[in-house]
Amino acid sequence: xTTVSAASAAPTEKTYRGxxxxxxxxxxxxxxxxxxxxxxxxxxxYPIFTNFLRFDVSTFSLTPDPKLVYELPFGLAVAIFLLxxxxxxxxxxxxxxRWYVAKLQKGMNPARFYEYALSSSLMIVLxxxxxxxxxxGSLILIFGLNAMMNLFGILMELHNxxxxxxxxxxxxxxxxxxxxxxxxxxxxxLGAVSSSGAEPPAFVYAIIPTxxxxxxxxxxxxxxxxxxxxxxxDYLFGERVYIVLSLVAKTALAWQIWAGTLAPV
Length: 265
Hints:
Mean pLDDT: 94
CATH topology: Rhopdopsin 7-helix transmembrane proteins
Number of strands: 2
CATH architecture: Up-down Bundle
Structural class: mainly alpha
Number of domains: 1
Number of helices: 8
Strand content: 5-15%
């Protein structure tokens, strides 16, 4: 059986209690930021459209018929991905703690990827909207693809419970699913940049490379865990790295958006 912690000494109860406190602190940091985003952000919204076809009787042809279906409050949306993480951390530090420890002892943490499937997928949707991706169908697709990337993370850890040698199939498929939303975002970003008068706000130029790098470091962390490189021989080291990366990535996106468009004038 392949486990990423097989080469390290078994963690003690003290180690797990430390991780429990760490989750509680991370939950508090996410909660404080989420509440701040709700309390202090302005009322900036971004539109979401449908683009169903309609029959144009004047030309006897089908044409797109964009219709506004919702104005998304961006401050609330930013707060939600922070609060999702807060709830997950508090759950693992309280009523789900024993379950959490049992999973960590097997070299896996499904809760991490379920949380990411929601929070990071909302993050990718907001980044897409910042570059002009406002079509409801497209937003659903990039949300779903990003969520699938994270569900492949669960499959990677689950599958390799029963292998003698690490099987990378789920990891590879997850990377493919995860890169597609970024391809679409970059396409829209470049299109906006090249369109006179439709350039994205200056802060978006910083968001795309920074969050793209953070998203990919998660994959690097998993790679190092399964390759058992240095301190990553201990699965709990990689777990802490995941937790820190999650906080830093969400904090970076939240505050870049807040400073760029949500700060009260």
